[in-house]
Amino acid sequence: MIQYIFFGLLTGSILAIAASGFALIRQVEGFLNIAHGQYMLIGAIVGLSFMQLGVNVIFSGILATLIVGLIGLLLSWIVFEPLRGKGHLVQFFSSIGVAFVLYGLILATWTGNGIKVYPLNFGNNFNFGFINFTFGEIYVIGIAWSCMLFLHLFLTKTSIGLLIRAVANNSTLAKTRGVNSSFVLYIVWFLSSGLAGLSGVLVGALGSVHSELGWQYILTILAVSVMGGVGNLYGVLASGLILGLVMDLSSLFIPSKYGMVLVFSVIILILLFRPQGLFSTRLQQRES
Amino acid sequence: MIGIFVFLASVLTLVFIYATLATILNFEAGWGGLWDLGTAGLLAVGAYCYVILTVESNEIIFSPQLPVWAGIVVTSIFTGAVAFLIGLPSLRMRDEYFLITTFAFSVVVLQLITTESSITLGATGFHNIQRPFDDYVSTRSYNFVLLGISTFVLITIWLLIRRLGRSPFGRLLRAIRDNEPAAKSIGKMIFVTRLKVFVITGALIGAISPMYVWYIRSLSPHMFHVTLAFTVWTALVIGGIGNFWGPVVGALILIGLTEALQFLQYSAEYAVLLSAARPIIIGVGLIIVMRFRPEGILPEKHSFKNARKIIDYQKQI
Prior knowledge:
- The complex is a heterodimer.
- Chain A is mostly helical.
- Chain A has one domain.
- Chain A has helices at residues 2-28, 36-52, 57-80, 88-109, 135-157, 159-169, 171-176, 181-206, 213-228, 233-253, 259-273, 282-287; strands at residues 125-128, 131-134.
- A two-stranded antiparallel sheet of chain A has the order 1-2.
- In chain A, helix 6 crosses helix 8 (181-206).
- Chain A is globular, with a radius of gyration of 19 Å.
- Residues 283-288 of chain A have low confidence and may be disordered.
- Chain B has one domain.
- Chain B has helices at residues 2-31, 39-54, 68-90, 95-115, 117-120, 142-166, 168-178, 180-185, 190-216, 226-239, 246-260, 268-292, 305-316.
- In chain B, helix 1 (2-31) runs antiparallel to helix 11 (246-260), helix 2 (39-54) packs antiparallel against helix 3 and helix 2 runs parallel beside helix 4.
- The termini of chain B are far apart.
- The A-B interface holds A 32, 34, 79, 82-83, 86-87, 89-90, 93-94, 96-108, 113, 215, 219, 222-223, 226, 230, 257-258, 260-261, 264-265, 267-268, 271-272, 275 and B 35, 89-90, 92-94, 96-97, 99-101, 103-105, 107-108, 111-112, 114-115, 225-227, 230, 233-234, 237, 272-273, 275-287, 290-291, 294.
């Protein structure tokens, strides 16, 4: 039981950082960025490639995060910036286009068409009564949680974080107050894509890397962010953890092949009773 | 020489299948305003229902071996019923929540199809599916039969959707899409109308799903990958949402371009690159159209010139 909670926490932490980047873009730009899943895949592949070149795990992760962040920044400059103000559906469909292009480029350039595993050694197995874990898994949880803490501190304590929240809340007002919104958006894109890249590395390190990873994860990310209430970053973090726990704990009670079915049924049920998401504050704001 | 014609017929058939799907989606999303990502799921429901009903196989526990026409009718009703069941909860949600719910449903359906192998044969699926008129023509020239069937289906669906689009029901749909409070204020039943649209869409997708099965000749969950729904959407968006010809033009351009690549298939070396070129073409097409012509190649207003005239006339008064 505790073992499954531990695994759930592991899955959930990764989901939470992947979805937080997605939610940031949704908050600031206003659309669902379907290309986010492909950013994760690029992160996983770049990390893997650096490790195969003999670079240390930590450095590979950092390099992958930075590279994916820069790719996201570049794409936002090329594709999404000219579309600002043309409506969210136009941006949404463009992001599907970006996802397709990246997926095609990965298929064309990445030689390994099968499933690949990171050349990693997670260290010895530790056994504390009920629970088995390795140092590597503790590292992954540590990285994920410090990332979330960093994101929280960045958004609440720094002046750039303040600007980001201002643009997310009311971009017109922010602009009239003299906020350079396109600069703020660059930062957000870099941050969001970087988080996607990092979560891709973590997914690859724990599991495996294959070319469908992007499409697979964008579904879960969509589910997590909608469940958390798309306007609320902390709600998204929490629902990522909850969904991870549900996924892993469900295998105790029902055959694991029904895991996906259960997860999405839970989401549909939650949306039925709370159509605005679990932790959304939007309605409260409107009422007050 | 005949080989090229066989190949062209097969490409055109695929174009027409996508055009039919995009036309149905146009009715639902273009005029109904329902942003549905569950198309692949409904298509899977229809395809599996049809094959299970008609296939002669003793590997699955339920196989009534109906004739083709009965299979299509029952499939259509069944898919419509499934759409009704999905519509009841999901239509209560707006915009991206509706998008997610239909998407989630699609995932659940595919997962169930993969796991319930006693009736769907799981990930292996069905192969060498019996097709109508299969005994009369050779496999090579069957492509022409299929082209005929798909042309007939596309024209039928297109005329039906055009009729619906120009009917008072179509006007009601566009009214609800453009101004929901106004439509509500004159006593229109928003939820019931949307549910009707959803069920009609489901029944139509069910009715055409056998065509997709006949084209591929086999049936497995991989055929309904996430990208299928996105590809149909791309065809519709490139061609022009809301326009009668938009989905047909979009499918012709998109599928025509991606399938034309098969002409270049000389060696296995290029096979990987070619399979990669398909998503790149779809993506670049989508990005360019969204950037320079977000309303699509054929905008909606071209389809409703008369409606525009009436409004202008009323303005003059």
